[in-house]
């Protein structure tokens, strides 16, 4: 077995590694190795994006969910959440404020809400696109049929985020009730890509039952899928879920995984997530310095922010969108990066 540094070099050259090599890199990470990895990841990020950071305005438009994922704060069995769903007018209002602040991508995210028929989501997409034709729409509504994904794409949706959560069947079964399967989740991702969406996958770092082997399987799955976006953030426990007493993911491992992803997929759109900012006050800055190039501030109306609490102590639930944007702009500036007004589409490698 080669040493960790030479494996990072191999990853940089070949853009893939064998299972045992990934496991070795994950198990043998040390501060010095991480520093080398992040320096390389930043070089690659700079080559592709300069010092530009893309923003996406996140609109959490429904917290109803028919699913019961063991980690998630808005799971069906959490009876202490007050449920809400925004009207089309309320969503448009979020977009109006977001547009004025410089957002050119709106991410419409929600639980798997039975109210979200294709007709309703199509109406939302068409209304947003009609008013903001220069903006991209990203959907993040969970698992739907091929036909449904196709209809929403034809209605004008550009991108879709659906984290695979974990690529390993046994681990998937630790995180989810039996009616959800890792096979279907992956199939949805292949369907989304085939239809033509800019497709995002991802996983939580440090979720219960995760191992170096399962993380290696995540990386191999991502390498095969070759997505346009990868969202990863630490697992953070939520007090009203079966995982309330579990340990959360660490900043250190999350950053390391971000660095590996940047080296494996040089032009991928990689957010420094809110969950990372939740477990470390400088988490998002550290994420950018480990290779991330996207931030996703919240555009949801203040009145609903606390009701979309996927995990405890989620940040930015009390700030106006404008404050969040300004706060992030100055955080990025401090570390030498700049928030830009741009759709921030995926670009094939030149
Ligand atoms: N329903 C859609 C779906 O399933 O993709 C979108 C909403 S779901 C809440 C968005 C993401 O939140 C999930 O993919 C999951 O990775 C993340 N998430 C949920 N609970 C979390 C927790 N306790 N800690 C960190 N991330 C969490
Ligand atoms: Fe449905 Fe979390 S269980 S969004």
Structure description:
- The chain is α/β, with parallel strands linked by helices.
- It has helices spanning 4-14, 19-27, 31-49, 88-101, 118-131, 146-154, 169-175, 182-195, 212-225, 251-264, 274-279, 283-289, 302-305, 321-334, and strands spanning 52-55, 57-62, 105-110, 136-140, 159-161, 198-205, 229-234, 294-295, 338-339.
- α4 runs parallel beside α5 (118-131).
- The two termini are 33 Å apart.
- Bound molecules: S-adenosylmethionine and FE2/S2 (inorganic) cluster (FES).
- Residues 71-72, 109, 111-112, 140-142, 162-163, 165, 204, 233, 235-236, 238, 275, 310-311 line the site of S-adenosylmethionine.
- FE2/S2 (inorganic) cluster is lined by residues 65, 67, 69, 72, 74-75, 111-112.
Question: Keywords, please?
Answer:
350 residues, 9 strands, three-stranded parallel sheet, binds S-adenosylmethionine, 12% strand, 14 helices, binds FE2/S2 (inorganic) cluster, alpha/beta, single chain
């Amino acid at each position: 077995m080669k040493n960790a540094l030479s494996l990072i070099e191999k990853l940089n050259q070949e853009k893939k590694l064998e299972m045992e090599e990934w496991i070795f890199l994950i198990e043998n990470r040390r501060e010095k190795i991480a520093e080398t990895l992040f320096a390389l990841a930043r070089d690659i990020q700079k080559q592709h994006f300069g010092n530009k950071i893309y923003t996406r305005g996140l609109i959490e438009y429904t917290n109803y969910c028919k699913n019961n994922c063991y980690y998630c704060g808005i799971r069906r069995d959490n009876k202490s959440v007050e449920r809400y769903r925004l009207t089309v007018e309320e969503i448009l209002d979020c977009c109006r404020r977001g547009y004025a602040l410089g957002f050119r991508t709106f991410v419409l995210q929600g639980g798997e809400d039975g109210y979200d028929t294709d007709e309703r989501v199509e109406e939302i997409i068409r209304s947003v696109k009609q008013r903001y034709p220069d903006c991209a729409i990203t959907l993040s509504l969970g698992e739907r049929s091929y036909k449904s994904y196709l209809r929403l794409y034809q209605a004008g949706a550009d991108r879709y985020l659906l984290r695979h959560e974990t690529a390993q069947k046994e681990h998937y079964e630790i995180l989810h009730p039996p009616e959800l399967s890792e096979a279907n989740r992956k199939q949805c991702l292949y369907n989304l890509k085939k239809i033509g969406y800019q497709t995002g996958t991802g996983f939580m770092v440090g979720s219960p039952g995760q191992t170096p082997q399962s993380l290696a399987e995540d990386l191999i799955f991502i390498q095969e899928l070759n997505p346009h976006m990868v969202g990863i953030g630490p697992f953070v426990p939520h007090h009203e879920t079966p995982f309330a007493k579990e340990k959360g993911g660490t900043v250190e491992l999350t950053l390391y995984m971000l660095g590996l992803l940047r080296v494996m997929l040089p032009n991928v759109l990689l957010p420094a997530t809110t969950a990372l900012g939740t477990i470390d006050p400088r988490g998002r800055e550290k994420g950018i310095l480990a290779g991330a190039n996207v931030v996703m501030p919240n555009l949801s109306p203040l009145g609903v922010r606390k009701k979309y609490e996927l995990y405890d102590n989620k940040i930015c639930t009390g700030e106006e969108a404008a404050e969040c944007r300004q706060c992030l702009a100055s955080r990025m500036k401090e570390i030498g990066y700049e928030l830009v007004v741009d759709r921030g589409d995926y670009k094939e490698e030149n």
